[in-house]
Design a protein that fits this description.
It is built from 13 helices and twelve strands. With 311 residues, the chain is α/β, with parallel strands linked by helices. The chain folds into two domains: 150 residues, 3-Layer(aba) Sandwich (Rossmann fold), CATH 3.40.50; 145 residues, Glycogen Phosphorylase B (Rossmann fold). A six-stranded parallel beta sheet has the order 3-2-1-4-5-6, sandwiched between helices. Helix 8 crosses helix 9. The longest helix has 13 residues. It is elongated and about 60 Å long.
């Protein structure tokens, strides 16, 4: 069984219940589950709460105040019998399971787990989410409705444990997130030349552009720095935890429908989110001080329209 180190094991009440929360990813979806995580921790304050997630989010989850243990789902293929046996061991022994993933895959986990008390959409589960509008509402509202069926009420989301993370950047700065996952042939990606031009405008207004992304996106940062030499290239240099703190201190974040933009908005950064018709804002608009700009394809979104809403 692969899992991270059990935290706070010495203070867990031996009479407490074992609670499992399932949330696998991607980053934007994981971030939009922060309110559900906080509500579950408040509801199960005396219980041992375990998260089953995928490896990219283990560090973030382990640093949070919401979970006592993190277990890693390697998502074994259905014909991988040794992998399924390990998954079965991870899923067994819980008094209640909250499936926040609510996918076809995670619903099958209900049967692998031995059909424990279960909140989700799995057939025959004890606390099914029968909200007829669950596929037509925002992810946060959908999860709130699901948890209310199990008696879990909303709770305050305190992200102070994230606010101080990451590198410090002198002066006022704006985060630029030029890449998105699953670009759909460019429909979800704003042209890099326009990001570069936007960086020039930001720099002229006293906001230092800070480019974030994976190491593979360093080439995008290089294009931006050609237009705005004072821009800071942080691609490949920040963990999710680092990015959260960096975003919390940013005067502005600009990017498409991608995890870092959702995280920045949740951390309180004023955010300009660029959505094409391949993204559904009903389900997944970033939450916070967000200005949403839409176009059929982001190549059709002019620089002037984005510049017009800069603070």
């Amino acid at each position: 069984m692969r899992h991270c180190t059990l935290r706070n094991a010495d203070v867990i009440n031996p009479q407490s219940r074992n609670i499992l929360v399932i949330r696998l990813g991607a980053l934007g979806d994981f971030v939009l589950s922060f309110p559900a995580f906080a509500a579950l921790r408040a509801h199960h304050v005396q219980d041992r709460v375990v998260l089953l997630t995928t490896s990219p989010f283990a560090g973030l989850a382990a640093a949070s105040p919401w979970f006592d243990e993190i277990r890693i789902d390697t998502r074994p293929a259905w014909l991988n019998l040794p992998g399924l046996y390990r998954l079965r061991r991870q899923l067994r022994g819980f008094d209640f399971v909250y499936d926040l993933q609510t996918s076809q895959r995670s619903s099958r986990y209900f049967w692998i787990a031995g059909c424990p008390p279960w909140s989700g959409i799995a057939r025959f589960c004890s606390h099914p989410d029968r909200n007829p509008d669950r596929d037509r509402v925002h992810s946060i509202d959908r999860q709130r409705s699901q948890l209310e069926v199990a008696g879990v009420q909303p709770a305050e989301v305190d992200l102070s444990w994230l606010a101080g993370r990451g590198p410090l950047v002198d002066g006022r700065y704006a985060l630029l997130v030029p890449a998105t996952s699953g670009s759909h042939g460019g429909a979800k990606t704003w042209p890099i030349a326009r990001f570069a031009a936007l960086a020039e405008i930001l720099a002229s207004r006293g906001l230092r552009p800070v480019v974030v992304g994976t190491a593979a996106e360093a080439g995008l940062a290089a294009v931006i720095r050609q237009a705005a030499p004072d821009a800071l290239d942080m691609t490949g240099k920040t963990s999710i935890l680092d990015l959260a703190g960096l975003a919390h201190r940013a005067a502005l974040t600009v990017g498409g429908d991608t995890g870092p933009v959702h995280l920045a908005a949740m951390m309180g950064s004023p955010t300009i989110a660029l959505f094409s018709n391949y993204s559904d804002p009903v389900h997944a608009t970033p939450v916070g001080n967000v200005r949403l700009l839409r176009a059929d394809k982001l190549e059709d979104l002019p620089l002037e329209r984005v510049a017009a809403v800069l603070p």
